[in-house]
Write a structure and sequence with these properties.
This protein is 54% helix and 13% strand. It has a six-stranded mixed β-sheet, with helices on both faces. It has 326 residues and is of the alpha+beta class. The protein is built from nine helices and six strands. The chain folds into two domains: 233 residues, Beta Polymerase, domain 2, CATH 3.30.460.20; 55 residues.
Length: 326
């Protein structure tokens, strides 16, 4: 039955797409922001226009779809944005056929860009990458992308190690650092969550595009992705412990401060009461207007007031210790 899917009408592209070629295969790696920049793909195969639109859209979910004479995939890869100090998903669209592969991104994807540049300039690397068919080229791309995850993972682990001691030091506030670290780990987990399923799907669906058996290679790739995911899960648990610890320590510190302030205020009550009594406009024992109370000199009233205040304050202090409030 003839293929009735729509075909992209090709026009004269503004720029001739650059590709690496070896062993009868072509690999196009383009940075495109409009569908018109992907018109050349229509000359390679009968391609669904919605797939091209998905390649330049940043709102697509990771997927692997077989379209008859080509395979279409959307892959998400974490990219650090220095301006925002955060990790964002970078999408890579992939279209592979028997004799060609097209990778599409809207921004820099360092592991893919570097591999493609080496294929353009180094004939030995080009032959090694493209010797096993387009399925192996895709594996090499994924391999570089997964390898690039480990330096990112190391930075996360280093950040955790650097704040671990501070988390348990009540003199240092690490709430902001812990929150930023939790955000980065959450972003990485969100982006990499579909990766294991994606690797499994690509292993099964790219066999027709491989000239050699790639099962062992994909098993190794799956194991590395699983290692990254397990490490992120462990990091998530540790950073949750850091968050809880910081909350408990800060709460305990606040409670101690409030307790001390409350105790100081409570111990000052006798002084306040005695001072209020002595300041009343009535005759009271020990007042300067009454009798010969100056047996300790001019400051007899002041000394007596302090002594009368300290006695109940001391009794309250002993009671607080007995109740283990302090």
């Amino acid at each position: 039955m003839p293929d009735t899917r729509p075909v992209i009408l090709t026009g004269a592209p503004k720029e001739k797409p650059v590709y690496a070629e070896a062993n009868g295969l072509k690999w196009y790696h383009v940075k495109a922001v409009t569908v018109e920049e992907l018109d050349f793909v229509g000359k390679l195969c009968q391609v669904n226009p919605f797939d091209l639109a998905d390649c330049i859209s940043q709102k697509q979910l990771p997927t692997v779809v077989v379209r008859g004479d080509y395979l279409f995939a959307i892959i998400h890869f974490p990219r650090f944005v220095p301006e925002k100090q955060t990790v964002v998903p970078q999408q890579v669209g992939v279209i592979i056929g028997t004799t060609f592969m097209v990778t599409v991104s809207q921004a820099e994807v360092k592991p893919v860009d570097r591999l493609f540049q080496r294929c353009l300039t180094e004939s030995l690397v080009r032959r090694q990458v493209m010797d096993g068919g387009t399925g192996e080229v895709l594996y090499r791309v994924l391999d570089k992308m997964v390898d690039y995850l480990f330096p990112m993972l190391d930075k996360v682990l280093e950040a955790m190690e650097s704040i671990e001691d501070d988390v348990f030091d009540e003199r240092v506030s690490v709430a902001r650092s812990v929150s930023i670290l939790r955000r980065d780990i959450t972003d990485l987990r969100r982006i990499l969550f579909p990766m294991q399923r994606l690797v499994t799907d690509l292993r099964a669906k790219t066999k027709k595009y491989c000239r050699v058996d790639m099962d062992l290679h994909y098993e190794d790739l799956y194991d590395r992705v699983a290692t990254v995911w397990t490490t992120l899960e462990s990091a998530k648990e540790r950073v949750d412990i850091y968050k809880d610890t910081d909350y408990v320590i800060s709460t305990e510190k606040t409670n101690k401060i409030l307790s001390m302030l409350t105790i100081i205020f409570t111990l000052s009550i006798p002084v306040t009461v005695v001072g209020a009594l002595m300041g009343m406009n009535v005759l009271v024992p020990g007042g300067v207007e009454t009798g010969p109370w100056m047996f300790l000199g001019d400051y007899t009233t002041f000394v007596l007031m302090i002594l009368i205040s300290l006695i109940p304050a001391g009794l309250m202090l002993l009671l607080f210790k007995w109740w283990r409030w302090i």
